[in-house]
Model the fold of this input.
Amino acid sequence: MQAIVASKLAVCGLDILTTVHSCSLALDQVMAMLQLVQRCQRLKDHMRSLSLSLSHSLESIASPSGCSTEFSVQRVGALASFLRLFTTGLETLHLHWYNLINKSTPARDIERRFFNSVADSVSFTSLRRCTLQGIWTNQNSLLNFLLQTTQLQSLELDIMHLEDHGTFHKIIQHMTTCLLSLQYLRLYDLSEPYLISFHLPDGLASVELIRQGSDAHLPIEYWPNPKTDFIDTPASRARARKHTLEFGPPSGKPFIS
Done:
């Protein structure tokens, strides 16, 4: 990032580790990026596409107690401030969460739920395409995000976990009826907390739904399926491998390059 800022190039797109597996940007590195980009008006003015793969801060992983919640709040706030620099011109946003460790602590949970802060405090007025992967959030925050991005043309939700007893019912209803410009919709592996299954036109059920064109506005039927996670099939094993490879946690000692 320092080299990009120093070059003074009119960078229109930036991808940080979303195209590689098992690699991510630790949240405690975001503050340094924020300080650099704040001084570069040219970068803020020209950015149209931003992709970030994020993970826990190094401190929260190294500490058995997960470090101070105050520091985790600051790191999540720095990420929201970083994204806020590009809100007026950003057209494509891709956010990916790579889970470095399953053991929960208050600080780690704050960092893992970073999207709540982004959704509740950042307004993307020009966003056309959005991909959210591995995100842990709640119904109100996700709905609030969609209420502010009514101009979306493409939306992908990939392995999303809805917490706090929320459901996808109002969210999906909003997608199909209020996102009037939507031309592509992909929903895959959504949990609330049980994995949900979509009703397909052929009468079958699937954890993945893809709609294009005017079909993106058709009603969507789904139901929670508590048994889906426990059925040992080739499909479920492939899903488990995809989870580990793309969303963590890594095998062995957690590591960030």
